[in-house]
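agent: user wants the structure for Transposase from Shewanella inventionis. delegating to structure tool.
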Amino acid sequence: MFDIPKSMVDITEYRLFTGQCRHCKETVKAQKPENASQGIIGPNLLSYIGVLAGQYHNKYSKNPITT
Ligand SMILES: [Zn+2]
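agent: tool returned. relaying tokens verbatim.
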């Protein structure tokens, strides 16, 4: 029997605020950390989706993943 751990979700939220310098009035926007994922899906979840879609053919989904 195979199972998955109960706590599989680890969410990291980045709030990128924009502000204006009081002195020179330049608008400055915060940047995400360099090691942050580019999209909303991290590498672990992406690989998990890949296994479900590839190895198990995503047979439980109404909307099969297509590439
Ligand atoms: Zn300034």
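agent: one observation worth passing along. Residues 21, 23-24, 26 surround zinc ion (CB under 6 Å).
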